[in-house]
Structure formats: C-alpha cells, structure tokens
Amino acid sequence: MGQKWDKHDFCRSKQAALRGDIIWLRHQKFLNYYNYFTEIEDAFIRRRGKNLLLSPLDWALMEGWQDRGIPLHIVLRAIESVFDGFDKQPNQNRTIKSLFYCREEVEAQFAEWSASQVGSHEKNGDGVDNAVSRETVAEHIKQAIDSLKAIGEQSLREDLDRAVGRLEELLANLGDDFEYIDRTLYDIESFIDRALLSNADREHLKKLKKDVASQLKLYKSAMDAEAYKNTFDLMMLKRLRADLSVPRLGLFYL
Questions:
Q1: Which residues of 188-206 are buried (b: 16+ CB within 10 A; e: fewer)?
Q2: Segment 104-117, tens digit of pLDDT
Q3: Which residues contact 113 (CB under 8 A, 6 or more apart)?
Q4: How many other β-carbons are positioned within 10 Å of the β-carbon of residue 90?
Q5: Bridge partner list, 129
Q6: 3-state secondary structure (DSSP) of residue 50
Q7: What are the Cα distances from residue 48, in Å, to 6, 54, 72, 200, 236?
Q8: Which of 94, 80, 73, 86 lies closest to 44 in space, CA to CA?
Q9: For the residues of 80-108, what is the DSSP string, one character each?
Q10: Is 123 helix (H, G, I), strand (E, B) or coil?
Q11: How far are the Cα atoms of 13, 16, 60 from residue 6, in angstroms, in the given order?
Q12: Which of 79, 106, 231, 247 has the fewest Cβ atoms within 10 Å of its own Cβ atom?
C-alpha cells in the first residue's frame, strides 16, 4: 500500500512548494535582470562600433523599459532599426552616443507589438517561440555540453562537470515542455555564473575586478550600492564568459 498523508502532511507539502516557487521567482528576477541589460548593452556597442560604456542615465532608461515589461526582442529590434536608418544618412560626422537616441523607436515598436498581441498566442509565457522543435533544442544542449567540456580552466572543472551532468540529464529526459526546459537551462546557467564569480582563477578574477572597477569609477558616485554591485557583477560575468568561451544556455539564444 502507498503512503497515507494526513492534512498536516498536505499543508507542509503545500508550504514547501510555495517556498520553492518564491525561490524560483527571485532566481528568475536576477536572471532576467542580467540577460536584459547585457543583451541591450552588447547590441548597442556592437552597432556603434566603439567600446562606449553606457552611462547611469542609459542604465536607468533600460531599467524603466524592463519595469514596464517591454520585451527584450523589441528593444533589440528598435536598436537595429535606429542604427540601420542612421547608417544610411549621408553625413557621418555625428555619432550615436547614448541609448536615449533609440528611445522613440523603442516606444513606437513596443506600441505596435502591444497592439498585435491582443488575442495572440504566438508565444508561450517565457517568450519561447512555439515553432521551436525538440530536435533543435536537443542540438542546442549538445553544443553547450561540448563547449563546457572544452573549457580548460581547472579551477572550474568540478563546477562545469556538474553543469554538464545536469545538461546530460535534461537531454536524456527531454520532453516538449519548452517552458520547463528553458527554466532548467537558466537554472544551470545561474549555477555556472556563481561558479565563475567565485571559483575562476584568482589572478584572473583579481585582474578583471581591477579593470571593471576602473571602468565604473566615473559612474560609481551616481549609482546606489545595489545598482553598482549588479552592474559590477554583470560586467564581470560578461568578461569571464568571453574569456573562457562559456556558452549561453537559454532557448532565447537558439
């Protein structure tokens, strides 16, 4: 016979599930913060063609977009559209120095997108395209596993092997619930992020911290402690990922 549960067991189970949901939501909030800001910054710097650190006002603008729920793909598309139009202008003596130059286009595209979403079910709750196939996702996970195995940083080997093990388990039991798959991938990516910030080569970390602190020096006084720490960690992770060729895992990167 199976185990019998009384009402107290049920309540405890329900409370544990609720705590798990709260932890997951906090985790998602950090991940969304990290991905949203990084992708916008990368797109802007890539199109501008010069390494220009975004100002605190630019970060405040991005935070406002995020708080209002403007999807990342809308902001990225608006940035591309603005630079495409700017590049066609005959006078190239001027340059786009601030993300504020893209603000009107972001607002216009968000308004257009919002109108198109009425009654639309093109995307699921995580913004994952329903046309994504299990085969495509499986190949994405296999490539991530190969990339992680190829990283030669010995101080991270144990952490990366654990991440590989979790990816292999996910791959072996891959289903069609892409929302669950995406959550799991971001959970593994978050684990890798923590390992990068804590267990990467100490000399490497020391050098990167010095470089990032130098880059943020001019802006530190204009940022509160939490914003500065988030920005600092984000920039550290960006550099570490690039230096070590750490793959992105979320289905957004398909």
A1: bbbebbebbeebbbeeebe
A2: 899 888 888 877 76
A3: 71, 74
A4: 4
A5: 123
A6: coil
A7: 63, 12, 19, 31, 22
A8: 80
A9: HHHHHHHHTSS--S----SGGGGHHHHHH
A10: strand
A11: 11, 16, 51
A12: 247
